[in-house]
């Protein structure tokens, strides 16, 4: 191993296509004596395929603290350890973050080996041009909690990235449309890097019907990207809110429009017109 040791190597593994395993990831998984894996039975064939004779340690969400102690013992004994999850990058909607935190607290080096990640793969091929995106991962499964989260996320000026499993895809897409608005665009990225890879973009209001029209499109693993809300819509809403507040305080139309312009930067003429109609409706 050309890498420094002892250290914890956080290694991304393929989402479905073995060709996505980087050369560096292969080298590390062959060189380390220990691999901490989310599911040892799932990862054993990958290690065999690579010709790695590393021994496996279970490191899943129910034993992460104990697994961290085991990893720290290996590092203390001078051994390098690799951390992998079932697919993609460990600690991204996967176990690993707590283990990494403990190893860092114990003073050992943690070295990331970047590679496949479903969110990044989906974004890169989505055509979403929003400069900022927010990775949410899995939404709550309970309706009320999911609605609370989506209500908070709705005005955020970012593209929103969700993970979803096939048995909840219809319910989740319906919730996204209901809470974020039918006009926002969604990109449904399914089975990335696999045989039935599909990337489909449409308005949220059409997404459920598209999925329902073909049961095959409801199978597999999903990344859902909801594009950022139209910036102008948001600004209009804010300017309208400020204008209404000023009119409600009894300010004359002209002065309310002038102040709303100074506060929000929205166009003065449009604010004046809006103020006239709001005053007429008062
Ligand atoms: N750590 C992984 C990563 O780096 O993307 C994510 C693990 S998370 C437990 C599994 C979820 O990731 C799936 O339910 C799905 O939402 C998404 N995912 C994983 N593989 C995928 C693929 N090939 N195509 C689309 N989404 C995928």
Name the features.
282 residues; alpha/beta; Cobalt-precorrin-4 Transmethylase, domain 1; Methyltransferase, Cobalt-precorrin-4 Transmethylase, Domain 2; 3 domains; 5-stranded parallel beta sheet; 5-stranded mixed beta sheet; 11 helices; 10 strands; 44% helix; elongated; binds S-adenosylmethionine
Plain-language structure description:
With 282 residues, this protein is of the alpha/beta class. It has three domains: 7-116, 3-Layer(aba) Sandwich (Cobalt-precorrin-4 Transmethylase, domain 1); 119-226, Methyltransferase, Cobalt-precorrin-4 Transmethylase, Domain 2 (2-Layer Sandwich), CATH 3.30.950.10; 233-281. Helix content is 44%, strand content 18%. Strands 3-2-4-1-5 form a five-stranded parallel sheet, with helices on both faces. A five-stranded mixed sheet has the order 6-7-10-8-9, with helices on both faces. β8 and β9 (198-203) form a beta hairpin. S-adenosylmethionine is lined by residues 15-16, 85, 87-89, 92-94, 117-119, 163-165, 189-194, 221-223. Residues 15-16, 85, 87-89, 92-94, 117-119, 163-165, 189-194, 221-223 line the site of S-adenosylmethionine. It is found in: Cytoplasm. Its main location: cytoplasm. Pfam families: RsmI_C (PF23016), TP_methylase (PF00590). This is Ribosomal RNA small subunit methyltransferase I.
């Amino acid at each position: 191993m050309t890498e420094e040791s002892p250290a914890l190597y956080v290694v991304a593994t393929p989402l479905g296509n073995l060709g996505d395993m980087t050369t560096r990831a292969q080298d590390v998984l062959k060189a380390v004596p220990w691999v901490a894996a989310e599911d040892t039975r799932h990862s054993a064939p990958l290690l065999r395929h690579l010709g790695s004779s590393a021994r496996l340690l279970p490191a899943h969400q129910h034993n992460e603290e104990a697994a961290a102690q085991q990893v720290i013992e290996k590092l203390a004994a001078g051994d390098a350890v690799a951390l992998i999850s079932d697919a993609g990058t460990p600690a991204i909607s996967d176990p690993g973050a707590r283990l990494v935190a403990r190893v860092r607290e114990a003073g050992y080096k943690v070295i990331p080996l970047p590679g496949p990640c479903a969110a990044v793969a989906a974004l890169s091929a989505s055509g979403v041009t929003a400069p900022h995106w927010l990775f949410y991962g899995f939404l709550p499964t309970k309706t009320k909690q999911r609605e609370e989260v989506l209500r908070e996320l709705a005005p955020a000026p970012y593209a929103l990235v969700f993970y979803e499993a096939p048995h909840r895809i219809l319910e989740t897409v319906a919730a996204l449309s209901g809470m974020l608005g039918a006009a926002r665009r969604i990109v449904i990225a399914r089975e990335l890097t696999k045989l039935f890879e599909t990337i489909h973009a449409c308005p949220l209001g059409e997404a459920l019907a598209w999925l329902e029209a073909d049961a095959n499109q409801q199978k597999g693993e999903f990344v859902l990207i909801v594009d950022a809300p139209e910036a102008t819509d948001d600004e209009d809403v804010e300017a309208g809110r400020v204008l209404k507040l000023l009119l409600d305080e009894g300010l004359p139309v002209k002065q309310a429009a002038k102040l709303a312009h100074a506060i929000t930067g929205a166009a003065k003429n449009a604010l004046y017109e809006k103020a006239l109609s709001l005053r007429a409706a008062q």
